Amino acid sequence: MFVIGLVYSSIFRLTSNILILYPFLTPNGALFTQIKEGLSIPFPATYGFLDVILFAIIGLALINKAHKKYASQFVRRTA
User: Fold this and answer.
1) How many Cα neighbours within 13 Å face the side chain of 45?
2) Which of 36, 48, 73, 78 is most buried, most CB within 10 Å of its CB?
3) What is the three-class DSSP state of 11?
4) Residue 64 in 3-state DSSP?
5) In the 3-class helix/strand/coil scheme, how is 21-63 assigned residue by residue?
6) Is 11 within 8 Å of 20 (Cβ atoms)?
């Protein structure tokens, strides 16, 4: 539990956003418990992990696209 607390606090410190903890770390906590207890994970249960990773990648791509668009508009205005 101490290690999980350190992970939660470090993620919160890096992002300064408490909303990131639920969708990102709840599936990871379940995975940690499964591995620690030596239980097998049914394949359909992995879809939740894949969803979180997929949405994170999509979100980062959208943010990157918006940032590039804003930066190009800012350069045109100042030049």
Assistant:
1) 9
2) 48
3) helix
4) helix
5) HHHHHHHHHHHHHHHHHCCCCCHHHHHHHHHHHHHHHHHHHHH
6) yes
Residue 65: band (very low, low, confident or very high) from pLDDT cuts 50, 70, 90: very high
Q: Provide the pLDDT confidence category of residue 64 given band limits of 50, 70 and 90.
A: very high
Count the Cβ atoms, other than its own, within 10 Å of residue 11: 16
Using left for φ > 0, alpha for ψ between -120 and 50, and beta otherwise, residue 59 falls in: alpha
* Phi, psi for 48 (deg, rounded to 5): -60, -40
pTM: 0.45
Supply the range of the domain harboring residue 74.
2-78
| Dihedral Cα 18, 16, 65, 47, nearest 10 deg | -30
Number of domains in the chain: 1
